[in-house]
Amino acid sequence: MDESRRRALLLSGLTGVGVLAAGSGTAHAASREDVGHVDSVAALRTVKGVRDGAVVIVAGYREPGDGGGMAVHWDADSTADHNGGTVIAPAKKATRGRWRQLHTGVVDFRTFGHFDAKTPADAALDAMVDDPAVHRIEAHTDLLFTKRHLWHRSRIELDFHGHRMLTTGIEANTHDNPFGAVLAFRGTPTDTTHTYALPAEVIELTDTFPVPDSAAFAVGQWWAVQVAPVAGGGRDERELQKLVEITEIVDATHIRVGYLNGWPLAEGRTLTWTRIEPVRATHVRNLVFEGAGDDEYTGSHPVSYEYAVDCDVSGIHATGSFWPVIMRRWCTRFRTEQCSLKNPPTVEYGGAGYLTQQIYCLYGRVADCTTSNVRHLNDLTASAYCTVVNCHGDGDDAGGNPFTTHGQYEHDLLFDGNSGLMDIANSGAQWGISAKRITVRRHTCSWFTANTKITDLTLEDVTVIARPTFDQAGTLTVNADGAQLRGCTAKTFAVAQRSARSTRPTVISDCVFAPPAGTVLVQTPVTASVHFVRCVIQKADGLVLRGAGPVTFTDCTVEGAPDAAPLSVGSAQVVVDGGTFTDTGIELSAVRDQHLQLTGGARLTGTNKAKALLGRATGGSGTATWQLTGAASSTDDAATAHVRITDGTNHYAATGCRFTGGRLHLEPAACADVLHTACVERGTTRSALPKDGDHVRTEGNLLL
Prior knowledge:
Layout: H1 3-12, E1 35-38, H2 41-44, E2 55-58, E3 70-75, E4 87-88, E5 98-102, E6 106-108, H3 122-129, E7 136-138, E8 143-144, E9 149-151, E10 156-166, E11 183-186, E12 188-197, E13 208-210, E14 222-227, E15 241-251, E16 254-257, E17 270-277, E18 279-280, E19 282-290, E20 303-309, E21 313-319, E22 326-337, E23 340-342, E24 354-359, E25 362-367, E26 370-372, E27 376-381, E28 384-389, E29 392-394, E30 403-404, E31 408-416, E32 422-423, E33 434-441, E34 444-445, E35 447-450, E36 453-455, E37 458-460, E38 463-464, E39 475-479, E40 484-486, E41 489-490, E42 492-496, E43 506-509, E44 512-513, E45 520-522, E46 530-533, E47 536-537, E48 544-545, E49 551-554, E50 557-559, E51 567-569, E52 573-577, E53 580-582, E54 586-588, E55 594-599, E56 603-605, E57 612-616, E58 623-629, E59 632-634, E60 641-645, E61 649-655, E62 658-660, E63 663-666, E64 671-677, E65 680-682, E66 685-688, E67 696-697, E68 702-703
Parallel strand pairs: 1-2, 6-7, 7-10, 8-10, 9-11, 10-19, 11-20, 18-20, 19-21, 20-22, 21-22, 21-23, 22-24, 22-25, 23-26, 24-27, 25-28, 26-29, 27-30, 28-31, 30-32, 31-33, 32-35, 33-36, 33-37, 34-38, 35-39, 37-40, 39-42, 40-43, 41-44, 43-46, 44-47, 45-48, 46-49, 47-50, 48-51, 49-52, 50-53, 51-54, ...
Antiparallel strand pairs: 2-3, 3-5, 4-5, 12-17, 13-16, 14-15, 14-17, 15-16
C-alpha cells in the first residue's frame, strides 16, 4: 500500500480496510491493519472506496462507548433497505453496497440508535425479528413502541433486561382483538383440512383417533383438531379444541397424537383437523410494561401467541395493560413465570384486565406470578394438563377472580400453593359450564365456587376466610359429582349438584366449617351421595340438608348452641356413624320418605331450640324410619327429648342405646311400629310411648 493511501486511511480511521476482500478463497493471518475503525455510524456512512468484505469496528452509535458499537462488513452487492442497525447504507444514496452488522445472532436496540423511549423503536424491532440470522434481541434501555407487531417467527428470544416498554400513542387496535399485542407471534394455519364424522365412540383418555386416510398425516406434523359444538348446547360448547402433534401412524385409518383426550366423543360427532405450521421456541423475558389507553382500541398489552409450541414468557411486570398481559390460544407446551400485573384500565370489560389467559392450550405452567386489582390472574379456557403454582392475587374485591376457567370442558388442571378468589367453570352456558379432574392444593382465599358441571374436583388444604370487604360469608361451594375435599376450612360450605358424570363418591373429610344460621349445607338438586368424614361443623344453627341424596356423617363433630335450631334434613337417607352432635340435633322434614340411622357409638348431647335431639317436623307426608344402634344421647334439660315423634307415619327401632336425662316422646298414633330394647335409660322420662303389642316391643331395657 502506498504511503499516500495509508495516510488517507489513517485520517479516516480505516487503516487497512481496503485490504480485506471477501471470497478470496485463501485463509491468512490478520494483521493490525486488516480491520478499520470509526467513531460512529454517521462516520461509517461517509466512508468511500472500500473493498467488498471490508470489516470496520464502529466504536459507538453516536459517539464512542455509548453502547451502540458494533462490527460491520461491506457487502458491495447488497441492495437491502437501510435500517440503521443491521443494514447501514452510505449517507449518499447508492444503488448497491451496504454495511452489514456482524453478529453471532444476538443484536441490541442500541445498535439501531435507540437509547431511550423518546422515539419509537418499532422499525428496529421489525428489522431484528425479520432477520433469520438473529436468534436473540436485547434491550438495555427503556423503549417506546407505537405499532402492533405480528410475526410468524420461530426460535427467537426477546430479553428486555428489566427495562420499560412504553406505548404512548400506539396505533388503534381492531374490535375485540386480544391478539393485537405489541409483540404478537402467530403460527400459520394451512389450507389442508379434513372433516370426519366419527364411525365409533372415541373413549376418554385415548390418544388414538380414527381418520379417513392416515396417509394424509405425517409424524411430527402439528394439527389443530376440534369437535363440532354439542347438539343443543352453547354456541361455543365443544369438548375438544387442541393443537396436537402427530406421534404415530397406527394404521390406514388411525393416527396417534401427543394428547390423552379428556372427554368421550360419541359416534357421529364431527372432527375437523387443520394442519398448522406453528411458531416454535419464541420467548419474551424481563420486561416492565407500561400500557397506554383505556379501551379496546387505544389500550395496549405486551405479548400474544397463537398456534405456538414451546414458547415461554418470564419476568414481565405490567401496569395499565388492557387485554391480557400474556394472551395465548392454540398453544402447547409453555411456561409463564415470574410475571405480574397491577391496575389495568378496566376489570369490567369482558376479556380485559387479565395477567394471562390460555384458550385451547395444553401442557402449560404458570408459576410465581402476582396481581393486584385485576380481573383474573390466570384463566384456563378449554385447556388441559396445565399447572398454576405459587401465584397470588390481591385487590380482588371488585375485579374478578384471580383463578378461573370458563367451563369449556377443561380437564386435568392443578392449582398448587396459590392465593386469591377462585371460580371454576362458571362463565355461562355458552361454553358448557363443564370441567373435569381439577385439583386445588394449599390454596387460600375468601371465596371459592365450583358448583357448575365440575366432575371429580379434588381440594386439599383449601382455606376460605371471610373478608368483610368482599364475601363476609367466606363461601366454599362444590358440585356433588365426585368432589373430594380433604383438610379444608371455610365459614360457609355448600354442596350443589349440576351433573352426575363421576364414578367416585363425593367425600368431605377432615374439614372445618362454621356456617351462618340457616345455611343450606346440601342444596335441593343434590341426588348424589354426600359423605362427611371426621369433619367439624361449628356454630350449627338451623343448617339445612335439602337434597334427596343420602348423607353420611362419619366420626364428625357438629357443635351448635342451646338456643340454636337443629339440622333440618330432607335427605332420603341420613347415617350418623360415630362422632358427636353437641347442642344441635337432627329434624327430619318428611318431605319424602326418609331413613335415619345412628350407629357406631354416635353421641348426641345438650339441647337446642326445638327441644329435641332427634325429631320430625310437622306437616311432612313422608314415612320416616328411625334406626338407632349403639348410640348415646344425653341432656341436662328435662324438657329436651332424645327422640320426639309426634306426626306422620314412622318406623322406630332403638337397640343397645344409652339415654341420659331428658325424655323419650313417641306418640302412639305416629308410630306404625316400635322396637325399643336392650337400651339403658338413666333419669329419662318416657313422656309418650306406645303399649307393647304385635307391632311394639319395649321390654328388655335397663331403667335407672
